[in-house]
Amino acid sequence: MKLQVIGDPVLHSKSPVIHGAMLEALGLDVPYAARVVRSGELPQYLAWARENGVTGFNATMPHKEALIELLDGVVGDAALFGAVNTVCLREGRWIGYNTDGGGALAALEGAGLWPAGTVVVLGAGGAAKAVALELAQAGAERVWVCNRTLSRAEELCRRDPRGVLVPQGASPDTLSRLCRDAELLVNCTDLGMAGCPHQFEDFSFLDALPPEAGVFDLIYHPAETQLLARARRRGLRGIGGLPMLVGQAVLALELFLDRPLDRGRMAAVASAALGT
What DSSP line would sit under 56-89, residue for residue? Predict the structure, then answer.
């Protein structure tokens, strides 16, 4: 049994630390390593993984959506979200799952930022799909999905049959207008990530948020992004991506091992390994 996390970039990933600590706590000698897999290399990787004893892997950018067409099957949230972050070899077949939504919800609940009636989600990629659709299923009344390319936001929102998700652009004026009534803002883009050449050009939308609103930045490297730092200077509650990373990892390990775990204990082990 071998486990991995793939992506590009991925060598900064905390997943080997988290999974390594949880596996050790369970008394299992199972290797978990990061492997760089570039865009377009997924077919070769899947063949290599099968031949080299990899029984499961996590996937991060840019592979969460691209994997869908290459797997033998997708189930649960992965089918709804159209994005995969966990893949298991089941009886010789690659099966995709998504634990991002469950991890995000667990992080928000742990920080006291959920439930929330109105949510502004920034981005429309794989992570945004997971978060927006999970929050809609969990009881959000309205989720504004904001993206510079409106057609991508519209595509995401079509996955929600109840109409809770509504597509919007991402201009500063649009974000400020939507944030006035929002209880939660979630950044699902890579803006502010270490190594990303781009940053938010305008943070004025934070001034429009009500004082009791929360800000959730899925980025965990760095631990405090400019978005979070500026939100906290405005007195807003905020959390970074590490609690979500831990939450989705616990759910992923249950899938890798194909058995339930003590989620509270595993989360504590993972958090201790990260020094949080």
Answer: EEEE-TT-TTGGGGGSSEE-THHHHHT--SEEEE
